[in-house]
Give the backbone structure.
Amino acid sequence: MALFALIMALCAIVLDNTLHYFIFQEATNLVEAKINQLKEIIMGNIALVTGASSGIGAELARYHASKGGDIVLVARSENKLNELKSELESTHGIKATVIVADLAQPDSAEKIFAATEAAGLKIDILINNAGFGGHGKFYERDLVKDQAMMQVNMVSLVNLTHLYLQGMVNRNAGKILHVASTAAFMPGPLQAVYYATKAFVVSFSQAIAQELEGTNVISTALCPGAVATGFVAAGDLDGIKIWDKAATPESVAKCGYDAMLKGDLIKINEMGLNFMLNWVVPLLPRKTVLKISQKAMEKN
Ligand SMILES: NC(=O)c1ccc[n+]([C@@H]2O[C@H](COP(=O)([O-])OP(=O)(O)OC[C@H]3O[C@@H](n4cnc5c(N)ncnc54)[C@H](OP(=O)(O)O)[C@@H]3O)[C@@H](O)[C@H]2O)c1
């Protein structure tokens, strides 16, 4: 009887220690994962943001810098980029690098890549944000403007992704955030080319995300609804109702950046829009969708 009690006591001690070991091990793993996540966020993470001179891009740059990450700011407006560089360096003590580039130029991605390579900057986060729209019937619009739009919104985005993604895959670490739009979810009469460019971006981002399965590199597509930025004036979109209740660029930037950190595939910033685009629009007849979509782009 005494022997049986002794064996039971020994078993209890072994079981207890084993349980403690596994709980401790699990807790250690969790803490390690969190520390690595924080390290990734805080230490020496370099992000390159295109279209950083205003709107969502500038806010993405501010949010990244507020987490202690260095940054490369890309756009055409040199003065605005230099102002943002000074602001971010003095507020957050990070290093910001300015690259002035016109993404409508076919060789711009190669030039940006060459500049970061020459400066020894390893890009951990690529944020393809630069983009613009344009109002009017396709056949009445200036084709040159739509060609530039396709170059900025799609071609340079693809080129930059190709150039930086290879390094990320080799290092088995990296993140890409593509700023697309809810425009990606339907055709856009009166903004035909713009909507098509964003559909391209969402398709491209998702396909890459799947190809990257099993690596530590992710691709996220941020799909904002209307946002109060220079986008409206740049695209001759003044007087269109949907921008009366536009989200702030700060909230959209935070939403997209956080979704990227989580490794989301697609992020729509508004719950209502998310529901409509995923659960209602796909059930409607195509001609009805086209009519609703055109109505949304008509000026007052
Ligand atoms: N605002 C919205 O309602 C909305 C909604 C959904 C998606 N988006 C998307 O969000 C992204 C950011 O737009 P935003 O709303 O923040 O508009 P924004 O304030 O007009 O910013 C656009 C940015 O893109 C840059 N850019 C434009 N053409 C460029 C070129 N040729 N070369 C280099 N940079 C160029 C601009 O910089 P420079 O002029 O200095 O070059 C600027 O920094 C775009 O991709 C847009 O399609 C916007």
